[in-house]
Structures are given as C-alpha cells and as structure tokens.
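Bit of a strange request maybe. I'm writing a small parser for structure token strings and I need a real example to test against, not something I typed by hand. Could someone generate the tokens for this chain?
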Amino acid sequence: MLSSFKEFRGNPEMLARLLRAVRRESILPAFILAGPEGVGKKLLALLAAQVLNCEKPEPDGACGQCAPCRKIARGIHPDVHVIVPEGSEIKIKQTRELSADLQYRPFEGKRKVYILDPAERLNEAATNSILKTLEECPAYAWIVLVTAHPNALLPTIRSRCPVYRLAPIPAADIESFLVQGGRDPQQARVLSKACGGSIGRAISQDWSQLQMHRSRAVSLLQRLAPGGFYQVRNFWSKLSTEERTRLTLEDLFQTLLVLLRDLLMLKENRRPEVTHDDIAPQLASLASAYSFERICELEAQLRNALRELQRNVNAQVLVESLYFEQQ
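Reply from user aminoacidic:
Good idea to test on real output. This should exercise your parser:
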C-alpha cells in the first residue's frame, strides 16, 4: 500500500482538495467517493484513514511508518473497517453491525473509519437501515461510500452525502507506471490506452488474455460490417457454460468499443491516436469495410448493451435482444 498522497497516480486537484479537508477535519462524516473501476478509490479512502489516525502526519499525507499507519496498511486496525458484499450484496446484518459499532468511541485510534465497497451493492433493506446512521454519524467517525456507479445509489443516500469524484487516469501516466514496473513498452502503450483510464485494470490485465479478447473481437468485426448482432449470438452460443459469465460478455463489448474507435481514428488518418497500434495494418484493412454511419450505429448499440449488463441484465437475454433488434 502507498504511504502518502503524493505517490497516488492521477487526479492531483481532487487529491489536494481531499487532503486539505481531511487534515483540517472539515470533511463531512459521511460522503461518496466515486470514479471508474480501478482508479484507486478504496486505496485513497485508506490513505485518508491513515492521515486521520497517523501519529506523525506529514504535509503530503500520513507518515506511513507509525503503528496506526502500518496497521491500516495491513488491514488489522481495530477502528478501520472495509465492508464488502456478502455474496452479491451488502446486507442489512452488516449495516446493523456498523451502526451498533458506531455507538462506541475509537478503541485505539483518533477516528473510526468505515469504507463500504462497492456501495451500490447495498440492498434495499441495508440502504434503509443505514440512512439514519449517515445523517447522525458522530464526529469521531467517518463513513466512505466507494462506488463506480454513483447513480446506482438510491436518491435517499445521494441526497445525504457530498460526492468526491475521481476521473480516469491519463494514458501517459498509466504507460509510465507500467514501464517503470517492468512491462514491455509496446504492451504498456496498448494497455494504457485500452484500460479506459483504470490503472488497476491495466496492472491486472494479462497480455495473452487481451490478445485473445482482441482476436475474437476483430473476427466479429470482420463479420459485423455487412451484417448484425446475429454474429454475437453465434459467438455466444459456442462458448462453454463456464465461459458464459457477465464479465466475459462485458470484456468482449468493451474490446469491441475500443476497436471501433480505432477504426474511426484510422478512417480520419489519426494513426497516433489508435489504441491497438501494434495491429494497425490489420485494422486499417478492416476500416475500409465500414462506413462512419455503421461504426456509430454499432457503438451506440454496444454502449446501450453495456449499460444493461451493469444493471445485471441476464447475458443470454441481452444477446438475444441484440439479435432480434437486427431483424
């Protein structure tokens, strides 16, 4: 875990604002920390928890060396709790335990911290249970709702909590980080552009897996130009039961979107902006089969499909609906 805010990648203005608020203890006891997947939201919440409990805080954050800092980094501090879903949801039992624990002052730290990640997984009963807690959170405690989908939170929660937003991390920053970490420069360049501003996704992405997703997506695009999403249904029907997960389909759609953008860049003679520049000649050949209108049509359909997936629509139902839209 990082030891200070200055080591955090991206969003310098928002970081400075958050650090000032934490150091002055002017931040409200409950707030939403929003941003795309993989930009470091939970990590940032833990860094802020260190600042709140550090014995020797420094101008750019916590010292990272004192006992509270080390315990928070190791996930064993008795006053800092990360609450994650049990199964697919954060349940009322968990929020009731939070509310009960909140009645007691910190055991050994200066502030109690509760990080709910991801907060959009709060089920309806848990949401209703935590509303009063958010409104009446004591001064010695701090509740952070971490989410990549703030609009998925119920309005009753959004109305009670201010929002701090993290933006996607610039590709150049991610590329530099990956190269420093030992990634091949060519791979780092592609990954930094393909990860959608998510440094976590770029770090965890296996290059051979990316090539597999890309190969499937390119093959589909070769057939989608004159046809429709029946090709996606054919692809989906050939996957094994184990492969038919929401994540698999979401990865495919995300890869298709990036490749469609690459086709647009090539049609507009903007080669430096192509994400998958290591296969640019192959994509240039493919681009000739597409009109601007066809690319935009497919992009709109894919973005709508991704929104449906994020609402947990059944993947098989979604593929079938895309197919019948083409009829």
